Amino acid sequence: MIKYIKKYWWAAVLAPLFMIGEASMDLLQPRLMSIIVDEGVLGLSNNGVGDLGLVIRLGLMMIFFVFIGGVCGIMSGIFANIAGQNFGNDVRKDLFSRIMSFSFSQTDEFSTGSLITRVTNDVTQVQNFVQMALRGFVRTFILFIGGLFCMLSLNLSFGVVIGISLPLILLCVIYFIAKANPKFTILQKKLDNLNNVMQENVAGSRVVKAYVREDYEKKRFGKSNDELVNTQLDVLLLLSYMTPIMNVILNFSVVAIIKVGQINVMNGSVTPGEVMAAITYASQVLNAVMRMNMIFQNASRGMTSGKRILEVLNCLPEIKDGDFEGFKGDDGSARDEERDKKPGDIIFENVSFAYPTQKEDLIIKDFSLHIRPGETIGILGETGCGKSSLVNLIPRFYDVSSGRVLIDGVDVRDYKLKALRDKIAIALQKSEIFSETIRENISWGKKDADYDRVMHAAKMAQALEFIENKPEGIGTVVTQGGTSLSGGQKQRLAIARAVIKGADILIFDDASSALDLKTEANLYKDLKEEYPNTTKIIVAQRIASVKDADRIVIIDEGKLSAVGSHEELLKISSIYQDIYNSQLGGGQIAE
Ligand SMILES: Nc1ncnc2c1ncn2[C@@H]1O[C@H](COP(=O)(O)OP(=O)(O)OP(=O)(O)O)[C@@H](O)[C@H]1O
């Protein structure tokens, strides 16, 4: 964490320096006050004759010091904020980019709610801690040491009172810290839970409404919320009885100082003004110790949050970058040695795969297949057989457990991730739509795409008609999560976004399931005609989606069961025949 504050070292140095200035002004006041009382009012060194001029001069001096203290306080606040806010900003940015580099399984492991809490609340806690360390801690330290020194310099006998009350207050502080510390870790976990429930409910609000589960979800939210509040209350309760106890000790100390002061005034070793100053110094010292309570509370929360932030920052991406930058130069042109090669060649070589969370359960088993550049490959199989898992290995959403996936003859793990993913465009069944215009949603796949290219991609994705029917056409803003679009419309935008990328490999992972058969047939026909050199992989449930593919791959429980054209598979694959018959019976195949 230190490296984040180093960048703003000047603010981190100036904030405490100005705070030292403010606290020093506070320490001067009681001393001036005692002189005003002893010399200005009581005239102790002038046979009881007061000095009004001295009172005015010292009074003005006190006002001046208050002013200086105020300015120092403001400057300290400004610099602490500069350091704290920028620190938080940088940590948040790094957290975000680290989370972006996570594999799906790493995101699952932390949980989305917890990651949100870490980027928001945890960063705020650490930011508060930094600001407090630069200001509150310095102030407390100066008032404690300075107050103690000033009081003892008045008369050592006052030290007896502090000697008794200080350990008592310290005991209270230590007791509080020991009790409260573990609760802060629990508090952040409860906040994670609350965020998880919130996030699930906001994202899944339609399902909740459709199943009339609002009451159930309200109870689930209420339970998480109650748990959070109860943990918070535990801490506050602890604080609420610790503070009065410490106040009682403080007040007893003041009474004791007055008593010790009275004795000393009687025997002439201190003056009444010095007793007044001693009372203020004692209050400053004991208040400083009491404030340690808050400081440690703040530090404790900051440490807990800091640990949670470091857990994310120290979690190295599972999917590591390779060195190979691809066959294209920076300007996009093919390198000389590869100019004659057609890109988009994919080889699965004895690939087996298990999800990192269930390593013993192989989802893909010894799968081998060579997909040639420009080929259209259909992937079919019953639900859960591993179709999506298989295609996820191509852009390295996950890494193979054994075997290799090669693109253009190079292991995908050897590619730089950017180079690899630049070669692939993928459209998923669940289309992620952003709350931007339709045009921005499509050109998300290629940021610099001009209007014509966007419209062409929309045409390819059979989306032109519905876009033109929207009031503002391509400039229509889509609501968050694409709720203002139908399922099929969202899929078409996601397909257009994939098409516009102009990648060597186009993967449709059940991406056209919400399209009617005619639209879907037009989509794949147009793609075949317009992009003959692009390798197309179509994962589907319906035979109609893949019937015209060059080859169809049948997957059965993670194994390659059969591969061939529609006609060939009808002859050789019993699984394909079963699917064909069941779908033909349902009238799902457009012949
Ligand atoms: N992130 C994950 N962690 C652990 N197991 C998973 C994960 N994703 C999928 N699985 C499991 O892997 C298996 C294959 O899932 P996959 O999504 O690849 O199937 P599919 O053939 O694409 O199914 P569908 O046709 O229903 O989309 C399933 O048993 C599923 O439960």
From TrEMBL:
Q: What membrane topology term does the record carry?
A: Multi-pass membrane protein
Q: Which InterPro entries match?
A: AAA+_ATPase, ABC1_TM_dom, ABC1_TM_sf, ABC_transporter-like_ATP-bd, ABC_transporter-like_CS, P-loop_NTPase, Type_1_exporter
Q: Which PROSITE patterns match?
A: ABC_TM1F, ABC_TRANSPORTER_1, ABC_TRANSPORTER_2
Short name of any one Pfam family annotated for the protein: ABC_tran
ABC transporter domain location: 346-582
Q: Where in the cell is it found?
A: Cell membrane
The portions of this protein that span the membrane are: 54-83, 136-154, 160-178, 235-258
Q: Which UniProt keywords apply?
A: ATP-binding, Cell membrane, Membrane, Nucleotide-binding, Transmembrane, Transmembrane helix, Transport
Lineage: superkingdom: Bacteria
A single Gene Ontology CC term: plasma membrane
One Gene Ontology molecular-function label: ATP binding
Q: Where is the ABC transmembrane type-1 domain?
A: 13-301
Q: Does the keyword Ribonucleoprotein apply?
A: no
Q: What name is this protein filed under?
A: ATP-binding cassette, subfamily B
Source organism per entry reads: Lachnospira multipara
